[in-house]
Design the sequence.
């Protein structure tokens, strides 16, 4: 019988160190006013020198397991979406598995930059609905600060570090009672690599490199591609966009989010936004925002939630789930 992948719990983690716009203005030629007006960002969290992506991911995973009332060894699949792995290999997921004390099951990373969590959720959902695995940790985790050029004001003001995690469980449709991931839509157009990339890597420069972005070109692509992905998942599920309870977007820019809200005729009070306090945490931003909505009581079991992401590749996508 078909299985549904139900979100049993979510958790998040943010590094303690906070960097405000005012602090950034002492480092590059920018201002709090410019950053707030152009992006909606006020501050972001920055990982300490001894904090790795796997540490952030494991902390978020522990919080998600606690929320689900599960033990780490209930998990038989770990999927980590990250652009900032601890090591070139093994996967950050393998390191997280060991940090959580999990002794069996599968673990791997997914790389789709800021769309990573949508790709990871969609992949894990397929593993669970097929019956191959029973309980998955799906984690978005980044130490994006490590690949920023802190002298480039066009990129360093935008990003932050953090992690968010879902515990997904395969349940029979009767047990799930309508809950679970309903569908997802993933896209990539590799011809647009030059709009947003890191100028280093294992087989090219043998160095890590720094983020390079043609921000205004990415911005111009964003609203249409994201809206089209959202409309696709809503249409495929046979529902009306007006039936959505919550919109949990990737937190890249408040103006992109507002553009999508306007285009799809959503209400601003349906948006879960964390951008002011976290900036763009890449693959971590969607689960971080989702967890914020659960923690403050907005997202409740049974609510219909639409999530979307867009990032380097370009990649983009959306997913619909009943909480
Ligand atoms: N402070 C002050 N001025 C700045 C700053 C800054 N931090 N950054 C750029 N400027 C200047 C530019 O130099 C330019 O000056 P000029 O007119 O003298 O040449 C001016 O501000 C306008 O620059 P634009 O790039 O046109 O500004 P825009 O309104 O497009 O905002 C931004 C820039 C915020 C980057 C926006 O384009 C954006 O959010 N783009 C999308 C980002 C995104 O979605 N990325 C995808 C996800 S990330 C991932 O996948 C890793």
Sequence:
């Amino acid at each position: 019988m078909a299985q549904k992948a139900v979100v049993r719990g979510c958790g998040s983690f943010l590094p303690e160190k906070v960097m405000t716009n005012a602090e950034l203005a002492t480092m590059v030629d920018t201002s709090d006013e410019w950053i707030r007006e152009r992006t909606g960002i006020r501050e972001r969290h920055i990982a300490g020198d001894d904090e790795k992506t796997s540490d952030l991911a494991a902390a978020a995973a522990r919080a998600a397991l606690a929320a689900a009332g599960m033990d780490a060894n209930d998990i038989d699949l770990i999927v980590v979406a990250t652009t900032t792995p601890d090591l070139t290999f093994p996967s950050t997921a393998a390191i997280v598995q060991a940090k959580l004390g999990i002794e069996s099951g599968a673990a791997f990373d997914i790389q789709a930059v800021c769309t990573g969590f949508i790709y990871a959720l969609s992949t894990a959902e397929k593993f669970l609905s097929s019956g191959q695995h029973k309980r998955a940790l799906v984690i978005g985790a980044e130490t994006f600060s490590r690949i920023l050029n802190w002298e480039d004001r066009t990129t360093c003001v935008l990003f932050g570090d953090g992690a968010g995690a879902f515990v997904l469980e395969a349940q029979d449709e009767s047990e799930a009672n309508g809950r679970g991931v309903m569908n997802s839509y993933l896209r990539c157009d590799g011809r647009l690599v030059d709009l947003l990339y890191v100028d280093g890597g294992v087989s090219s420069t043998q160095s890590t490199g720094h983020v390079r972005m043609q921000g205004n070109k990415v911005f111009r692509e964003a609203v249409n591609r994201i809206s089209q992905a959202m409309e696709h998942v809503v249409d495929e599920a046979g529902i009306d966009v007006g039936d959505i309870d919550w919109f949990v977007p990737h937190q890249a820019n408040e103006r992109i989010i507002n553009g999508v809200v306007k285009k799809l005729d959503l209400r601003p009070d349906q948006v879960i936004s964390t951008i002011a306090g976290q900036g763009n945490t890449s693959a971590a931003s969607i689960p971080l925002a989702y967890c914020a909505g659960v923690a403050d009581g907005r997202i409740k079991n049974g609510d219909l939630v639409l999530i979307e992401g867009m990032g380097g590749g370009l990649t983009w996508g959306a997913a619909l789930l009943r909480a």
Q: What stands out?
A: The first helix runs from residue 21 to 24. Residues 180-322 form a domain with the Peroxisomal Thiolase; Chain A, domain 1 fold (CATH 3.40.47.10). The mean pLDDT is 97. The radius of gyration is 18 Å.
